[in-house]
Amino acid sequence: MKKNIATLFAAMATALAASAQSGTNSPYSQYGLGVLSEQAQGFNRGMNGLGLGLRQSDQVNMLNPASYSAVDSLTMIFDMGLSGQVTNFKEGNRKLNANNADFEYAVAAFRLMKNVGCSFGIVPFSNIGYNYSSTTTVGASSTTTTEAHTGSGGVRQVYLGVGAKLFKGLSIGVNGSYLWGDYDRSLTISSNDAYVNTITKQYAVSIHSYKLDFGLQYSLDLTNTDNVTLGATYSLGHNLNADPMLVTTNTNSQTSISTSDTLSVKDGLSLPHAFAVGLAWSHNRKFVVGADYSLQRWSKLAYPEFNPATGEYKATYGLLTDRHKLTVGGEWIPNWQSRKFYNRIHYRLGASYATPYFKVNGHDGPKEISISAGFGIPLLDRWNHCSFLNISGQWVKSSAKDLITENTFRINIGLTFNEGWFNKWKVN
Q1: Which pLDDT value is given to residue 402?
Q2: Which residues of the chain have pLDDT under 70?
């Protein structure tokens, strides 16, 4: 057991180091806190992030901490995953491809006591990563102006959660997370005219805060083979106690002499209140189908903005908007008791529609449509513990009128270990 524990913590340390990498190339990550991560594990991703009403004894489902009460009492579950993606960007007649890979998550769960489960792990909250430029010609002259945009960073979270079954059918849970990260966004405006100065605006912030998520599940047996589970979550909105900074540097193109000015916004970033509800129906351990809906109240928050007319850098309302997301999905297992390998494979499918949480030039950002399909491949060890290789593919389209269209194809790979740490061995 000591060896297993050491291996577990070594894997978590490796995942922690890898989490510093960016998981996006999207220019839309320059808005808000960046591109929001799904925070779903391998089996959820095959159903496009479905999870609020799911209660799995052999998988970690951090989407609803109330689900931890369903964790098997004899095993320690450890799950980690990564992804690789290719994205096509289209603006008018111009097209560009980009690709990247990223650590996605490392989580674990185990039974604390009867009807009480615990989970912990590290997952991304948001990602920032972009690098692009545009050049315009001034009038009929040969003078050009170039705007170069770069950004990197993101927010990560390490969490500890507990879920408890209060009485038959009803479970509650809570995840407490520590958030940390930073972002560095810059805009450089330069010209081929030697008499025009180069201006660089650098936006930066460091985040160290917390996050609280509460969950509830009520499960009802309709028949001996049919069950429905209602799930709901609430995420606490609060100020992140972060002070975004803007450093403006003006460089003389002839002398290379620079002057700079620094502005900051006290407590300029916040998390929104978020609500979600989901319903799942399962039949005889053969299939499960469900739907989730979530609402994040970003429109109630102000966000830092520089006003060139007044020279002020301050928190401004109206830059963010409420994010709605609807997900449907399901899983089918031909026969989990079969001796035939392909009959025990978990087949998954899901689809989602989501609205943006930020605005671009006063208009709503791109809406998102996505579909996914995946497999859960059971892996039996010599002690008959069932682990899983979770593989899924996901297509995501982000688009809005007169904005860049993104088409992303993503491969998610997750490995779930079910270790029999709590088995009691009997010697005859």
Answers
A1: 86
A2: 1-22, 139-140, 380-385, 419-428
The 3-class secondary structure across 195-257, one letter per residue, is CCCEEEEEEEEEEEEEEEEEEEEEEEECCCCEEEEEEEEEECCEECCCCCEEEEEEECCCCCC
Cβ neighbors of 21 (< 8 A, separation 6 or more) are 102, 103
pLDDT of residue 15: 47
Position 310, amino acid:
T
Predicted pLDDT of residue 381: 54
Amino acid at position 96, single letter: L
Distance (Å, whole) CA 406 – CA 346: 30
Neighbours of 117 (CB within 10 A): 28
Nearest to 233 by CA among 213, 248, 252: 213
User: What does the block give as tokens for 272?
Assistant: 């929104």
Task: Specify the residue for token string 């039996």.
Answer: 380
So what's the pLDDT on residue 17?
46
Phi, psi of 335 (to 5 degrees): -165, 100
Return left, alpha or beta for 228; rule: phi > 0 is left, psi -120 to 50 is alpha, else beta.
beta
Using CA atoms in the order 347, 384, 80, 56, what is the torsion angle rounded to 10 degrees?
A: 60
Question: Of 43, 44, 41, 83, which Cα lies nearest the Cα of 412?
Answer: 83
The residue extents of the domains of the chain are 2-419
Q: What is the pLDDT of residue 235?
A: 97
The pLDDT tens digits for 266-289 are 999 999 999 999 999 999 888 999
DSSP letter assigned to residue 39: -
Q: In the CATH scheme, what is the code of domain 2-419?
A: 2.40.160.60
pLDDT tens digits, 370-387: 999 999 998 865 444 578
Closest C-alpha to 148, from 95, 199, 90, 205: 199
- Specify which residues 179 forms β-bridges with: 157, 209
